[in-house]
Amino acid sequence: METNLKKGIFYGILGTLLIGVQPIVANARPGVLDSHIFAAMTCLIEAILFLPIMFIELVRSNKNESDEATFKIRFSNMRENWKKNVWLLIFIGMIFGLNQLLFFVGYGLAGSINGALTQKTTVFFSLVFGYLILKENVTKTQVVFSVILFLGLIIAITEGTFFILFDIEFSVILGVLTLLFITCLWMLGHTLTKPIFNRNEATPTQIVFVR
């Protein structure tokens, strides 16, 4: 359990660092690639990259099994598990597909720095959905520091003009609100995915491909 926690923290930090680059890449794209095209290309390339990885997982054999036997068993299990969770997988795919589009729209309006800062509110939404949906224990300390983090991010994004909204460009406010909405949906999708992992009905690679 301790090892899994350490791995989870490591991958979480790595993912946070990598996703911080996303707003910069999104806003640095050529003008001919609008948000719709860029979102579609992102989803398509993601699927192309993870399809072979998903099949590698399926064919990786155990010591006492052939590659073919392993593939047939795992592919059959994957198909049955996907059927069992088909509507949830479709919903998750729709959430993340919509998010890709709104991400790039929001980044364009809010700017790269504001966009990256807004995404850090995932901590706040993860606590809310973890408590409401997964019934996870949430401590008072976690709540206090999450609220402080949330308010600190708002102050940073608005540059201290939190109570003087007319000093902030409307496009920036709209972009930040869009990204907040996306972050909320994003964590909802991750929260709904966790029980599937706990039941061993899908792997992270399969979920990324579905998304």
What's the short story on this structure?
It is built from ten helices and no strands. The chain has 211 residues and is mainly α. Helix 3 runs antiparallel to helix 10 and helix 5 runs antiparallel to helix 9.
Helix content: over 70%
Helix tally equals: 10
| Low-pLDDT residue spans | none
Rg is: 20 Å
The dominant shape is: globular
Mean of residue pLDDT? 82
Outline the structure in words:
The structure is a single chain. The chain is mostly helical and 211 residues long. Helices cover 79% and strands 0% of the residues. It has ten helices and no strands. The chain has helices at 2-19, 22-27, 35-59, 67-84, 86-110, 112-119, 122-132, 140-158, 170-198, 204-210. Helix 3 runs antiparallel to helix 10. The longest helix is centred in the last third of the chain and has 29 residues, at 170-198.
Features:
79% helix; mainly alpha
Record the SSE blueprint.
Layout: H1 2-19, H2 22-27, H3 35-59, H4 67-84, H5 86-110, H6 112-119, H7 122-132, H8 140-158, H9 170-198, H10 204-210
